[in-house]
Amino acid sequence: MHAAETATDRRRAGPLRSLGWLLGLLTLVALGAMTLSVSVGSSALSLVDVLATLSGQGSELQRTLIFELRLPRTLSAFATGGLLAVAGALMQVLLRNPLADPYVLGLSGGAATGALLAMLAGLGGVLVSGSAFAGAFLATLLVFGLAHGSGSWTPSRLLLTGVVVASGWGAIITLMLAVSPAERLPGMLYWLMGDLSYARTPWPALGLLLGVSLLLLPLGRSLNVLARGPLQAAALGVAVRPLEWSIYLIASLLTALAVTSAGSIGFVGLVVPHMLRLLLGNDQRLILPACALSGGILLVLADTLARTLIAPEQLPVGVITALLGVPTFLYLLHRSR
Amino acid sequence: MSRLDVRDLLIDVPGRSSGRALNFSLLPGQVWGVLGPNGAGKTTLLHTLAGLRAPRGGEVLLDEQPLERLNRRQIAQRLGLVFQERQDGFPATVLETALIGRHPFLPAWQMEGAADLLAAEQALARLDVAHLSARLVSTLSGGERQRVAIATVLTQAPALWLADEPTNHLDLHHQVAVLELLAAQASAGRAVFMCLHDLNLAARWCDQILLLYPDGEACWGPVASMLQPAALERLYGQRLLTSEIDGSPVFIPAR
Amino acid sequence: MDLSFARLRRRVGLAAALLGLAPALLAAPICVIDDAQREVCLQAPAQRIASLSPGATELVFAAGGGERVVAVVAFSDYPPAARALPSVGSHSRLDLERLLSLQPDLAIVWGSGNSAEQIDALEDFGVPVFYLEPENPEGIAQAIERLARLSDSQAVGRQAAEHFRRGMAELAEQYRDAEPVTVFYQVWNKPLMTVNDAHLIGQVIRLCGGRNVFAELPRQIPRIDIEAVLAANPQAILAGGMGEENRYWLTEWRAYPGLQAVQQDNLFFIPPSLVQRPTPRLLEGSRLLCESLETARARR
């Protein structure tokens, strides 16, 4: 009871101020996580070496390790995690279902189909990413078109369409795995599990994450109202349909870019928003920026583990997020009854 | 102050012929009561008046402008709706819930300020739920939730109140308190349009009555002319005993 | 349990066959030990061989039994004659119906590649099964000799095995005292994968006087990251590739000019089919690999 009182008092102090504190704190944690991620890897560098290299000294090898390998990968992990968590939070508001995740509407299936097709054709690098993005885009349009179809639109209809389309993608993926030559399989499986070694440059993802976070801030209160149901939201002045389609498209764009740069990494988009809601309440103006930072932090840490647990051998980061995510999520679910 | 004019309105109840076209005006100071059996279309009428549902014919004018030419925000600044059913998919505290009543008035970038907070707190106090501010709405009783919903619209402070069964789930004392509140809103120059099930509450607090029959037939007018036992018995298909207490008619179902 | 039951049934089957084919008893059965350490006996040399991995097909052809192969699996592309043979699906999912309709009297299986259930089923249908899994160069030579016995082509097989053995021995002799060169062998690029010392390629690297920088990793084909390669800083990088003449994996390493192998231009393409399958072509692959390392040695 006492804790609830202080929580209210904090809210009375104005959401703006708690937003400032929260983002400041999370930014510090994010910087810490990134420093850790840049400092460890399969070759040992001391913190002193890392700081020296960051300030422009250090050997050529150290500079290569830090500036060409670890830093871009860390930034990619951060951006990808942020994108997934924000996309998850948006999908949960859109479907009025706290258990939705960015992949629930079959977008990752479309992206995976695109990526695997490219791999099956023996293409590499940029073409795999491009094909994954095209697949994600196609999946979005497909679900959008089918759910929109006759005009009547409800979250459950969208969810059903998405789930059915997703299982269709699943079948296509299984088919492709079944007919692939053995030597292509490891690459495909790693892609499906999510793997940041595919990330090329972090800048598009980081740019999108920052842009969307800023764009969503003014929409935050409308999303709060939308979470109470479309009729209530409309009665309080929200243009429900345009808002719903915009957040669907934004969430799809975020997921598509995340999947394109790192494969389908599970659980970040489900667990992070859910955990933040349990800790911070349900104000999207707090949740969305906090998701961007916390999702990033989680994936940076998970990727650090993936790179170092059995170094120099590597684990796919999707396995780490799932191994961390499943018990955490079950615990939270159990505790919240 | 605002007014709502209903012209040749045919509400769209699926699977029913259109019935009588509605023509009336909701004017400042008035308290309208809509009476009718289950399924007569009371909620549909309310949603149509709020522009949440397209009519089958006719139009609704808010301050002389057709609703469809106004955007939701312009409507919400003048017209508030107490819903009968509410979605609580996501947890929210009582105070947060009341505060969303300020949504139509705040620019996108602006956070709720001290004045908004004060309005919400006063509304919660007026509905006797201020002590529940920090509680999650999902943990409240039905009657408490009903009062939080009304407090949300009170925070919104619309010139036109549309209320769907505002006394649902409320104990006798709180039923009276809520109707007193709505009457006070009307005497302050606002207008109230509500669906009710209780004939006696309607007789006591409303000055205009609209009777909605299950076949789409309807009639409306001042309370004294509308609350005729014969018309009410036909409306509900139920024989009534009538008396008069304290200057108001009283109806009880006959056994 | 299941396996021994299947064996029992096979023996009963064999006994019945023995009674029925009394004249055939005049010839002693042909018995060899396979790579699962089981004794495989045939009453007569195999006439219809099902070769259920691309590597097995190469070995059977090398052993002189190529003309008796009636079924192969997908990607059996060497020798070219194998491409014309009927395929019975991929090695991991055999089309048993098709396979049985070809009436093989011997199946050469790949224990770690074929499905164990399908191998069991084959045995249940009475097809003798020979497990093939050569783990080192000597294993390849012996596999050729044993397959030659089963297909009654000992002369060809002995010659092929001796040629292979001699060639490998010559390489070993030639590079026995060569100065060690540190080597990174790239199996695949995304994800980046290499081999350890126990892998056949790892053995060839050692034979050629190379020192595999990832020799000590526990798994045969471990997945690593670029950082580990940079830290190990090998003197030579050898790579297979997706196609036979696809060298872009190597050019990607030029992005790291700090690497010794890049500075000395020691980036070598080794056609994967010559070293990644345990077949007699490994001799040619080993020569190429040894020459590459010798080039690297000379550039120091």
From TrEMBL, chain A:
It is a multi-pass membrane protein. GO terms for biological process: siderophore-iron import into cell. Pfam families: FecCD. Its main location: membrane. Keywords: Cell membrane, Membrane, Transmembrane, Transmembrane helix, Transport. It comes from the Bacteria. It is found in: Cell membrane. InterPro entries: ABC_BtuC-like, ABC_transptr_permease_BtuC. Coiled coil: none annotated. One of its GO terms (molecular function) is transmembrane transporter activity. The chain crosses the membrane at residues 21-54, 75-95, 115-146, 158-182, 202-219, 249-273, 285-302, 314-333. One of its GO terms (cellular component) is plasma membrane. Belongs to the binding-protein-dependent transport system permease family. FecCD subfamily. This is Iron complex transport system permease protein. It comes from Pseudomonas borbori.
From TrEMBL, chain B:
Pfam families: ABC_tran (PF00005). It comes from the Bacteria. This is Iron complex transport system ATP-binding protein. Residues 4-239 form the ABC transporter domain. The keyword Nucleotide-binding applies. GO terms for molecular function: ATP binding; ATP hydrolysis activity. PROSITE patterns: ABC_TRANSPORTER_1, ABC_TRANSPORTER_2. Keywords: ATP-binding, Nucleotide-binding.
UniProtKB/TrEMBL annotation, chain C:
GO terms for biological process: cellular response to iron ion. CDD domains: BtuF (cd01144). Residues 48-297 form the Fe/B12 periplasmic-binding domain. Residues 1-27 form the signal peptide. InterPro entries: ABC_Transporter_SBP (IPR050902), ABC_transptr_periplasmic_BD (IPR002491), Vit_B12_bind_prot (IPR054828). Keywords: Signal. This is Iron complex transport system substrate-binding protein. It comes from Pseudomonas borbori.
